[in-house]
Amino acid sequence: MHVHLENTTSKPRPFWLTPELVDAARSSNAALPGEVRFTIGSDLQDFAGSLSTATVLVTSSGVICDPRFPRGDLGAAAPNLRFIHLIDAGVEDVMPLNWLPANVQLVNNSGVHVEKAREFTIMSLLALNARLPEIVWHQQRAQWEQVFTPLIRGKSLLVIGLGDMGQAAVAAGHTLGMKVFGVRRSGMSVPGVERVYLPGQLHEAVELADFIVIATPLTSGTRNLVSRSVLEATKQSAALLNIGRADVLDHGALVDLLRNGRLSGAILDVLPQEPLPSSSELWACPNLIINPHVGADDPTTYMTETMRLLFANLQQHLTGRPLQNIVDRMSEY
Description:
Layout: E1 2-7, H1 19-27, E2 37-42, H2 47-53, E3 56-59, H3 61-64, H4 74-77, E4 83-86, E5 105-107, H5 114-129, H6 132-140, E6 156-160, H7 164-175, E7 179-183, E8 196-197, H8 202-206, E9 211-214, H9 228-232, E10 238-242, H10 251-259, E11 263-268, E12 288-290, H11 302-318
Helix pairs in contact: 1-11, 5-7
C-alpha cells in the first residue's frame, strides 16, 4: 500500500508533513505492515507520478484547490486511491464533493484541535467577561476608563455547534462554572449541556446567553446562521467568540452592534478573508479582538495528533473496518 503525503510550503513549518513525523508514527505503530510505503512531496512537484500509485493521499485543502490538482478526473489520475486525509478540520473549501470518486472517502482532522480549543475558549471567555476588548480599545486611545465586572461563574454560555470544537467549548464553560446550553442540527442531547436547541430556535436561544461561542462548520445550512436578526435578539451586553467558520456570522451586523454598545465585546479567531486586508472595517471596530486563526493550533502536538489519526485509519483500512472522521457528502462535514 502506498501512502503519499503532499505538503504546501505556504503553511507554517510546524504543520508540514515530514519524514521524521512518519518515522515516529511508524515506531509507535509496530503492527502496521512493513509493506506500507510512504512518499512525501511538496507544492505538487512531480505529484502526478506519486498520485498514480497512491492508495492514500494525505494533504491540505490548499492542494486539493490548486488548479494543478486533477479534480476533473481524479479516478483516472489515481486509480488505486481509497481515501484522502485532509490535515484541516474545515472542508468547506473542497465542497461540493462531486470531484471525489464514489469509491474514495474523504477524512478530515476533526478532533486534533480539541485540547487547545478548550484552553483558548477558557482564555477568551475570561477576557470577554473582564471586558478586555473594551479595556484594550481605551488603552489604544490613552483613555483611563475603569471597567468593573462580576465573576463569570453562574453566567450562561450558548455553544452553536456541538461537534468536537463545540464540545471543547462546553468543557471550557464547565471549567468556569457556567450554565451551558447548545444548538445542534439534530437536537440530540449532549452530556453537560442543559438544553439543546434546534437551529430554528436560535433567536430564542441567544436571548438567554451572556456569552455565545460559534463552533459550527460552514455548510450550505450554516452560512449566515448567526445573522443580523439573531445578533439583535441577544441579551444586552452579551459577548461573542467565533472559533468555527467566519461565514457563519454576519460581520457587518457584528460591527454595528459593537459600535453602538449592543454587544459588549467579541473575539474572532476566524475571519471573512485570511489574511484580513488592512482595508477591513473589522480592524477599527471597537471592543473587538482579532486573533489570526491560531487559537486552536498547537505547533507541538498538531502534526503528531494528525499522524496518530492517520495511522489509526491505516489500520482500519487494512482490516476492512470503517474509517474515523469520514466527511459525509450530504451533511458537508
